[in-house]
Amino acid sequence: MGYKVAVVGATGNVGREILSILDERGFPADEVVALASRRSQGTEVSYGDKTLKVKALDTYDFSDTDICLMSAGGSISKEWSPKIGAAGCVVIDNSSQWRTDPDVPLIVPEVNADAITGFTKKNIIANPNCSTAQLVVALKPLHDAATIKRVVVSTYQSVSGGGKDAMDELFSQTRSIFVSDPIEPKKFPKRIAFNLIPHIDVFMDDGYTKEEWKMTVETKKILDPKIKLTATCVRVPVFISHSEVVNVEFENDFSAEDARKVLREAPGIIMMDTREPGGYITPHEAAGEDATYISRLRDDPTVDNGITFWCVSDNLRKGAALNAVQIAEVLVNRKLITPHKAA
Fold first, then answer.
1. The whole model's pTM is what?
2. 340 within some domain
3. 230-234: average pLDDT
4. Cβ(66)–Cβ(3) under 8 Å?
5. Which residues pair with 283 in a beta bridge?
6. 338 falls within a domain
7. Which of 74, 114, 189, 269 suits a disulfide with 95, CB 3.0-4.6 Å?
8. pLDDT tens-digit map of 8-17
9. Is 143 a catalytic residue?
10. Does any domain span residue 247?
11. Which tens digit of pLDDT belongs to each residue from 213-228?
12. Which of 36, 29, 38, 42 is nearest to 15 (CA)?
C-alpha cells in the first residue's frame, strides 16, 4: 500500500523539482496531487511520464492525504500547514516559517534524521534554508570527528534561490546588456547581470541580513548550539547552484588530510579536489546533481586546527526539493507514518 502525496506550490521552481525527484527516486506514492493557488488551477505539470492538472489548495481535502510537500512561501505555510497537520497529514515545509519553532524539527537526513520523531507535536517538519542544507552536510562528519568551534562562511548564491522572477531578471538583464537596452532592477536592489550583490533578504539591526542570520540559527539547531558561526551571503549571476567558502576551526587536533579522509566516507558528499586547473567543481557542474561537492580543501595556517574548503550544491535539489523528499523517505522507511488507506 502506497502513500498519497500532495505537492503545494507545484507550479514553482521547487514544486516542479519535487515532482521530478519523487518520480526519479521511485517514492512509494499511489497518488500524487499537484496543488497551487486558484489562479494556477488547471495548469499542467509533469510527474515522470504523467501530466498532472493543478488543483486549488483552498478547496482541497487533506483528510486522506499522508504527506504534504509544501513549497508555497512562508505566508501560505503559516496559514495552511497547521490546518493540514490537524487533518492528519504530515507537512514537510520548504519556507522559513517553522524553522525556529521549538516544536518543529528542522531536518537534513544525512545530519540529524533521529530528530524527526518530534514532528508529532504539530505534524510539521521544516526544511532548512538552501545555503544551510549543503553547509551542514559538510560540517556534520567534521564535527563528529573533531568538534567544530567556529565557522566563517561566505556564500555565492544563485538567482534561483529568489524564484522564477529572479531567474528571469538575470536572463533579461544579460540580454539587455548585449543589445544595449536600458536595465531597470526589479527583483534585486541593483543590477545582477555581470555583477555581485552582497545582500540577500532584509537587513537586521546588527548589520547582518536575515539570510545570514538564518544560516547561524539553523546550523545551531541542526548541528550544535555551541558552534559559533558568522556568514556573509552574496547573490551572484548564476542560474542554479549555491557555492560557499567555508573556514572551520576545531576544538581538537585536526588537519586537512584528516578532513579529506572523513569527507570521502561521508553520506551525500563527493570530494573532487585534484589541485590542478579544473580539479574542482563549479556551480554549473553541480546543477542537476544530488551531491554536495567539496573542493579546494586545505589547512588554514592562521589558526590552530583550522581548514578551508569550497562547497557547491544544487540549491533547488539538496537545498530544497531533494531534502524534502529525503525527509519523506525517512518517515516511510522508519515506519513513522501509516497510509490513510491502509489505516
1. 0.94
2. no
3. 98
4. yes
5. none
6. no
7. 74
8. 999 998 999 9
9. no
10. yes
11. 999 999 999 999 999 9
12. 36
